[in-house]
Amino acid sequence: MGSLVVLIVEDNDKNLKLVRDVLQLEGFSTVDAVDGESGVELARELQPDLILLDIQLPGISGTEALARVRADPSTAHIPVVALTAYAMRGDRERFEAAGFDGYIPKPIDVAELPRRVRAFCLRGAIRS
Ligand code: MN
To answer: What is the DSSP letter of 34?
Structure first.
């Protein structure tokens, strides 16, 4: 079995590098994009096992990128997890209502990240 592929869409260099390094160390393959449009395109092209999607991005927002991923039958099944600094009460419900599979708050908990990412990948495997 090949390694799980995670698409990271994040415009902040430091966050992108952190998430990429942690996931690669744990054996995931990663691809990345720094804006929503190219993230949506890469999702179509590469069919990743999971998309980690920042909300505040240049160009279209993460929420709009999610809508495009869900509207396309070739990517609709891919789990999409919001990567967000808005770690406040009620956010979980808000992100789930928007159609995200979940969210991972920033700052990133590097010890937790691989386990959570793996769990979200499995959710997609069940769905597809
Ligand atoms: Mn951002």
So the answer is: S
Q: How far is the CA of 121 from the centre of ligand 1 (A)?
A: 23
pLDDT, tens digit only, all 128 positions of the chain: 579 999 999 999 999 999 999 999 999 999 999 999 999 999 999 999 999 999 999 999 999 999 999 999 999 999 999 998 766 667 778 888 889 999 898 899 999 999 999 999 998 888 76
d(CA 38, CA 32) in angstroms, rounded, equals 9
Query: Alpha-carbon torsion 21, 26, 27, 28, what sign?
Result: negative
**How far is CA 119 from its chain centroid?**
13
How far does residue 98's CA lie from ligand 1's centre (Å)? 18
Q: Tell how far the Cα of 12 is from the centroid of ligand 1, in angstroms.
A: 6
User: Around Cβ 79, how many Cβ atoms within 10 Å?
Assistant: 23
CA 76 to ligand 1 centroid distance, Å: 23
9 alpha carbon – ligand 1 mean position (Å): 9
